[in-house]
Amino acid sequence: DAGITQSPRHKVTETGTPVTLRCHQTENHRYMYWYRQDPGHGLRLIHYSYGVKDTDKGEVSDGYSVSRSKTEDFLLTLESATSSQTSVYFCAISEGRYSYEQYFGPGTRLTVT
Amino acid sequence: SQQGEEDPQALSIQEGENATMNCSYKTSINNLQWYRQNSGRGLVHLILIRSNEREKHSGRLRVTLDTSKKSSSLLITASRAADTASYFCATDGQGGSEKLVFGKGTKLTVNP
Question: How far is B30 from chain A (nearest CA, A)?
């Protein structure tokens, strides 16, 4: 298995509070991605990174920010959590662009009450 | 917006039967990938097929790609209960972006 960990694995938080999810990799892959998975919507890209300090928006980036200060860590922050951000969040990594397979982390289940 | 769309949404078969899932997409692609997701787990890459390939095999998996119809199929032969999972196709976006766009998946149940 690719060396990807996500923390925390489960979190319950209240509306309006900030939340940070962490993705850590030991593969030294250049690309890192954050997705959310919701019933009826499949997997949707939130943000991705193509190098240290290089990030870009995905399909559903509103309400989320990311940072990547080291190759191995990619942080996803919900500045002020809302109930619509209740979801399962997956981090993924890949060596290169779309022609490369993506390796997924185990996921973080976030509940915003 | 979703690029790939899997069909059917759900499929239930008996162990030993073959399972076929289809994926249709809207714009031209460079490659198409299939992933599997077991309940409560992350996605696992199964196979990648490039736009200039028509068929690819990996163990009990066979993937076809028809770029003229903008469609792909995933065939799992001699299915096992352990194949029970959701299966997703993913395509690179129009113009070859860095991003993969995933479909909503086919939920396969293999009954023992």
Answer: 8
* Chain A contact for B85 (CB, 8 A cutoff): no
Spell out the alpha helix ranges (H) of chain B.
none
Q: What are phi and psi of A95, to 5 degrees?
A: -70, -35
Count Cβ neighbours within 10 Å for each residue of B40-52 and write b for 16 or more, e otherwise.
eebbbbbbbbeee
Asked if A30 has any chain B CB less than 8 Å from its own CB, the reply is no
Which residues does A39 contact at the CB level (< 8 Å), separation at least 6? none
Interface check B44 vs A, CB under 8 A? yes
User: Could you tell me where the beta strands, DSSP code E, fall in chain A?
Assistant: 4-7, 10-13, 19-25, 31-38, 42-51, 54-57, 64-70, 73-78, 87-94, 103-104, 108-112
Asked if A2 has any chain B CB less than 8 Å from its own CB, the reply is no
The predicted pLDDT at position A110 comes to 98
> pLDDT by residue (tens digit) across A52-93?
999 999 989 999 999 999 999 999 999 999 999 999 999 999
Return the number of CB contacts < 8 Å for A and B. Answer: 62
Closest Cβ–Cβ partner in B1, B33, B99 for A48: B99
Phi, psi of A84 (to 5 degrees): -70, -10
